[in-house]
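Troubleshooting entry. The earlier prediction with heme C gave an output that would not parse, so I re-checked the input for stray whitespace and re-submitted. Clean input:
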Amino acid sequence: MRSGKAIFVIAVSMLLSAGVRSAEELSVDLMQTIEDTNKSLSSNIALSNKQGATADAKELTQMFAEVETFFDHKGDAKNAVDLAKQSKDLSSEIVGYVAANNFESATTAATTLSRTCRTCHTFYKKE
Ligand code: HEC
């Protein structure tokens, strides 16, 4: 009985998130997580926290892949697809820099990444 209920709850929440996707809105939760992870990445790079920075940069790589797919499917948003891809590539470059203990290049890439957020918001974020 209990596990049946849990499965029902999971099924409903999957339906709900599928509904959000089909509404052609970029998930606000995803962007909020990107925001938090990006902040965490900056401080981990500043602290030369190799493990933390690697985990954050890997997560960002994955999330920007999702953003890229979103805009790719949405269509008519070539600029956003490019910016998402650029963000994904920068995040994955950071993983490499951190692995090589090159925190200077990681910092430069993280600064460029933050600028890319703002560029995309200027064009694609309403309000
Ligand atoms: C390819 C485009 C694109 C990139 C790159 C991008 N964003 Fe966004 N972001 C958006 C769009 C579009 C919205 C508006 C989503 C909505 O309201 O449905 C948004 C919304 C947000 C929000 C507001 C969420 C809320 O609660 O309303 C935050 C915070 C955010 N982005 C942070 C970031 C950060 C930090 C980065 C970079 C590390 C980033 N974004 C990169 C497109 C992008």
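This one parsed fine. The domain at 26-124 is CATH 1.20.120 (Four Helix Bundle (Hemerythrin (Met), subunit A)).
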